[in-house]
Design goal:
It is a single chain. The protein is 49% helix and 15% strand. A 5-stranded mixed β-sheet has the order 1-2-5-4-3, with helices on both faces. Strands 9-10-8-11-12 form a 5-stranded parallel β-sheet, with helices on both faces. Strands 6-7 form a two-stranded antiparallel sheet. It has a domain of 206 residues: 3-Layer(aba) Sandwich (Rossmann fold). It is elongated and about 80 Å long. It is built from 17 helices and 12 strands. Helix 1 packs antiparallel against helix 2, helix 10 crosses helix 17 and helix 15 crosses helix 16. It has 450 residues and is an alpha/beta fold.
Length: 450
């Protein structure tokens, strides 16, 4: 890998080599200027021939593996697949790559027929350093079209180029987009060539959608209904079996959780295109108890004396536990599960409900261990729990907040906890931060393979 290449270069070079060598129809839709040396912090949008979908998806999977990577998950629906991947090229200790890939299987609106002709790959694709890329005028029009169809709005990044393309090259563009139908093309032309302030965007967008739906149904009713069922069925299936992963980091004060999170974030942020969600302790659907009682401290505040507050009595401890239970369960379904279901994202928790079992005094809970174990067993489970530990004396000196005996008790409890589930991994932070980061990211890779 050249010095000026980004870590994802090994994957990108392998991917485009395999696609070209297999003679497959594809085109990068935008942000290709630095390819294949770098994705420049962007995701990779590929337009592919739906007839070659399986061959191209196999090619992508092989390329990810060749770059020592793994897909966090896959969202596969009619017309679109999303892959969030990351890995370590050539096993280089100081390098990790991450990339989000959006695979457009033609141009489809909610299970409609393909809205673009196959001639796009021969008439509107050019070469860029050995990579097939979509012509900028068609890419801009497609960008506007997809924004209008799926989001009901026009992004500023497309409209200027789309306006020029519609004004000067509409004949060639309308030919390749002829499956939209004459009425749909008229709406698209108005949206691209007119001032958005002078037309009713909402009306034109609805008009375009209705025409596409009507044309798709009339062309082949059985196929249209079948694809509709597939489209909405895939959305339901993602809720039942989310493609994303929930990962928890546990560790005593001084174990280096914050440092570790900052070390693993770059690769995961690149893989999820900056959609990585980091939570502290709980989902936080409900405000901290201290805020309800008009105190200033909340769950994110730096705690310098974790055992300084007096534990609540039995009744108030039950109230606290019930409050946390509601936040972990309802908050999971309203905040965490949707993030995991929408895309192959990662939700990373710094501390979790398990801390109530491992260090109840920190959260001012004074209840028997059996009650805390019941609580831990009924809250939503993460896909992977990483338990960070080290020498108790060293950890105690780093923070100087708890006596060595208490840190030792927590470390022993954490080690014991890590042995009671296959999804729990014990990792020492006594090695270098690079080694610890690599161990954690490799553990996440292993979890994604299962």
């Amino acid at each position: 890998m050249a010095n000026n290449d980004r870590p994802e270069a090994a994957f990108l070079e392998k991917l485009f080599h395999n696609l070209n060598d297999s003679g497959l129809n594809y085109a990068v839709m935008r942000n290709y200027e630095l390819l294949p040396r770098s994705a420049d912090g962007s995701d990779l949008d590929l337009l592919i021939d739906p007839k070659q979908e399986q061959l191209i998806m196999d090619c992508i999977s092989d390329s990810i593996r060749s770059a020592n990577g793994i897909a966090i998950g896959l969202v596969n629906t009619v017309g679109l697949s999303k892959i969030f991947a990351f890995g370590q090229p050539d096993n280089e200790d100081d390098q990790w790559w991450g990339l989000r890939l959006d695979i457009c299987k033609g141009v489809v609106y909610r299970g409609s027929h393909n809205l673009i002709e196959e001639t796009v790959y021969s008439e509107h694709v050019k070469d860029h350093h050995g990579i097939k890329v979509l012509s900028s005028d068609l890419a801009a029009v497609l960008g506007v079209m997809k924004e209008v169809l799926h989001n009901g709005e026009i992004g500023d990044r497309y409209i200027i180029e789309a306006s020029d393309a519609a004004t000067e090259r509409w004949h060639s563009i309308s030919t390749v987009l002829s499956p939209i139908g004459e009425n749909g093309l008229n709406s698209l032309y108005k949206i691209c060539s007119s001032d958005p302030n002078e037309i009713s965007l909402t009306s034109e967008a609805k008009h375009m959608r209705r025409n596409i739906e009507r044309r798709s149904f009339l062309d082949c009713p059985v196929s249209h209904v079948s694809k509709k069922i597939q489209y909405y069925g895939s959305r339901i299936l993602r809720i039942v079996k989310p493609p994303g992963k929930m990962i928890v980091l546990l560790g005593t004060d001084g174990a280096g959780k914050s440092t570790v999170i900052e070390a693993i974030k770059p690769a995961l942020m690149d893989a999820t295109h900056k959609a990585l969600l980091v939570k502290h302790l709980r989902p936080r659907l409900f405000p901290p108890l201290g805020r309800i009682k008009e105190k200033t401290r909340d769950d994110n505040e730096v705690v310098t004396d974790p055992h300084g507050a007096v534990a609540s009595g039995y009744f108030l401890s039950l109230v606290r536990l019930a409050y946390y239970f509601l936040d972990y369960t309802i908050g999971y379904w309203l905040l965490i599960r949707p993030a995991l279901s929408k895309s192959p994202n990662i939700v990373l928790f710094d501390r979790y409900a398990y801390d109530i079992l491992l260090d109840p005094k920190r959260l001012r809970i004074n209840l028997p261990q059996w009650a805390l174990r019941i609580f831990v067993n009924i809250v939503p489970k993460p896909d992977l729990t990483i338990c960070l530990y080290g020498d108790p004396e060293v950890l105690a000196q780093r923070k100087n907040e708890l006596p060595v005996q208490e840190v030792e008790r927590q470390v022993n409890a954490l080690v014991s906890f890590s042995e009671k589930g296959e999804e729990r991994i014990l990792i020492s932070t006594e090695s270098t931060i690079v080694e610890t980061r690599n161990h954690i990211l490799n553990s996440i890779k292993d979890a994604c393979e299962q």
